[in-house]
Structures are given as C-alpha cells and as structure tokens.
Specification:
Order of helices and strands of chain B: HHEEHEEEEHHH
Oligomer: heterodimer
Strand content of chain A: 25-35%
Helix content of chain A: 25-40%
Number of helices of chain B: 6
Largest sheet of chain B: 6 strands, mixed
Largest sheet of chain A: 5 strands, mixed
Largest interface: A-B, 61 and 59 residues
Structural class of chain A: alpha+beta
Order of helices and strands of chain A: HHEHEEEEHH
Strand order of the largest sheet of chain A: 1-5-4-3-2
Number of helices of chain A: 5
Number of strands of chain B: 6
Distance between the termini of chain B: 51 Å
C-alpha cells in the first residue's frame, strides 16, 4: 500500500466514524431510543471522566444517563454544534436545551430554561464505540436554575471559605496530605 | 497547514502559555480579537479578545501557583483541534473571588480551537468546574435539604405562573 492509499483509507474511516457517532447521538439522545446502544456501542465499552458513574456496565450506564436527562429536562432538544473526526477518534461538541421539569442532581424542578453543554471524545473500532470520555458543564446549569450566582461568591461564603482554608492549611503544615495517589501536579 | 502542525501548535500553546503561566506569551498564540465561546465568561456565552485569556493565566498563577496542565488526547480536522486535558494543583490564592481553600483539585476539560494564519481565532470549552468545586469542598455533592425544599417551593410557584412553558 502506498502512502497516498493509506491517507485515503484513514480519511474514509474517519468519515465513517463521524457518521456513526452522529447517528448514535441522534438516536439515543435525540430520538430517546435506548436500543441505539446495542447497535453502536461495544458490550465492553470503557467509559471515563463524567461517564460511567454509578458502577453499572457501560451500555446500561449510557441508557441510564439518557433516562436521567429525560426525567430532569422532559422537553429537551439535542443540538450537535460541531463534530471532528481523525483516525479512530471523534470529538462531538453538543448541547441539550429545554425546561428543568424534574429532579436534576438532587435539585427539584425549577421550571427554568437550561442549556447543558458537553464535549465527548469517542474511540471507534470495527464500527462500534469502544471507549468514550465526556465533560459536561453542570456548574452553568446550576447557575441557570438559580442555585448559584455568576459573579463573586457572596460575602458569608467568602468569609467561611477563608476561615476553613486557614484551618486546612494548618492541617497541611502538620503533615496531612490530600494529594491523590499518582497526581502529577504540585 | 496540516493537522499535525496544528496539533504541534496547540502543544506549544499549552506549554508556553499555561504550563509556563506566561500571560505575555498569549499574543503569540491567540488572536487579539479571538471569539471565546463558553470559555472564561462569567456565565455561558461569548466573549471577545485575548485579554480574557491573559487575565485567566494571571489569575491561575495566583490561585494555583504550582498548577500543572496535562494533555491526554487531541482530535484534529481541517483548521480545528480538540484537546482533552486536566489541570491540577493546590488552591492557594484568590480564584475568581473565592479565597484559598488550600485543597488539592483537578479540573477536567475539553477545548476546541480554530486556527487561522498561525493564531487561535475561535475557541470553545467545556470544563467540569463543578467537580473542581466539589474537591475544594466549596460546594457539597448534593444540595442541602433546606435548599432543596426552597427550590421545590419556588419551582411549584414558577410552574403555576407559567404552566404553558412548564408542561
């Protein structure tokens, strides 16, 4: 195979992967069709970051995530903002928007409009999603439902935080360490 | 310019601006009139100009003087590069008005940059800032019961006022 053939092959595969990930998101999230996971997701899919919490196996946890969204924002609409594909990876920048009409992360319905933004990176192997990473901006959602302001935290919170911070600094000085195992930062 | 050059450009941008905490290096990578979507703004929305980027580099240098930034993955196509990364460190100074908690935390985020003539001209970012606030123990993982009651009461009130929108 020549280098040119290899490049063509890579871009054809990227194109197929992009279309697969788009169909998956449109069917599972857009059409609210849980059976999409069986068509597009490998049974042993590995989920990372904000995906795969709760200990359920991959496919079930994706379905549970969609169900939680439908409960929290029953009238939600899906919008795919941009979708990049390269090699075996696809990046989707997407939002769902609607009315907060049910419990959302412990917060009862406020009936306010919300926009939930996510970026999802997906790895595709043999026409199946085998791995995914997802970041969702829940802080902005809490601001939209009125749980948080958007500027500086209020004075009582700042004072309490400063006091707790000084107490914690003393614990650190006595040798306590909250740096997780394997952390790379300082 | 190919996608490999753009990925290399983003690696240098992360190194020379963020890892080095060098606000003066921002001009070399980010266009003065960059359009920032969902990024560094007080609320989700748009902001224009690389001054915002510089302010954030300076703020982070004070808030988390030892922070590290780690690229895990990139997906590039055309003039765009997506970067999945974490930033971690100890919160030792004012962070957007929040006093030092002295706790260690890790921020997960994915950013997409559009590059034109060797500068970032447009950027999108989604960050798990709430996860970071959980680690700093500023925000509880579940809202306290009294707050849930208040929100539920207010929600019932809003629903009565706008039944057409709510149902």
């Amino acid at each position: 195979m020549t280098a040119a053939d290899d490049t063509t092959d890579r871009s054809t595969r990227a194109e197929a992967n992009r279309s697969l990930v788009r169909r998956f998101l449109e069917e599972l999230v857009g059409d609210r069709d849980p059976s999409a996971v069986e068509r597009y997701v490998a049974a042993d899919v590995r989920l990372h970051e904000q995906l795969g919490g709760g200990g359920a196996p991959g496919r079930e946890s994706l379905v549970a995530g969609q169900r939680a969204l439908a409960q929290a924002v029953p009238d939600y609409r899906l919008a795919i903002e941009q979708i990049l594909a390269e090699g075996d990876k696809v990046l989707v920048d997407w939002t769902v928007s609607g009315t907060h009409g049910g419990e959302l992360g412990g917060i009862p319905a406020t009936y306010r409009p919300v926009v939930i933004a996510s970026m999802t990176t997906v790895r595709v192997e043999a026409d199946r999603i085998v791995e995914a990473w997802q970041i969702t901006d829940f802080l902005t959602v809490l601001q939209q439902v009125g749980l948080f302001g958007t500027g500086r935290p209020p004075l009582p919170i700042r004072l309490a935080t400063a006091m707790r911070g000084r107490l914690f600094a003393r614990r650190l000085a006595r040798g306590y360490d909250d740096t997780p195992e394997g952390a790379r930062g300082s | 310019v190919g996608v490999e050059e753009n990925k290399e450009f983003m690696r240098r941008y992360f190194d020379e601006v963020w890892r080095a905490k060098d606000a003066d290096a921002v001009d070399r990578y980010v266009h003065a009139d960059v359009l920032l979507r969902n990024m560094f703004s007080e609320e989700a929305g748009e902001a224009r100009g690389n001054e915002r980027v510089k302010e954030n580099v300076r703020m982070l240098a004070v808030a988390m003087p030892g922070f590290g930034i780690w690229i895990h993955d990139m997906v590039a196509e055309g003039d765009r590069v997506a970067v999945r990364f974490t930033a971690d460190g100890r919160h030792e100074g004012d962070l957007n008005g929040l006093p030092a908690t002295h706790r260690w935390s890790e921020l997960h985020a994915t950013t997409v940059a559009r590059i034109e003539d060797g500068k970032i001209v447009e950027g999108w970012q989604v960050s798990d800032t709430l996860g970071m606030l959980h680690q700093l123990r500023v925000v509880p993982e579940r809202p306290p019961r009294v707050l849930r009651w208040l929100l539920a009461a207010r929600g019932r009130f809003s629903k009565r006022r706008a039944p057409a929108q709510a149902d």
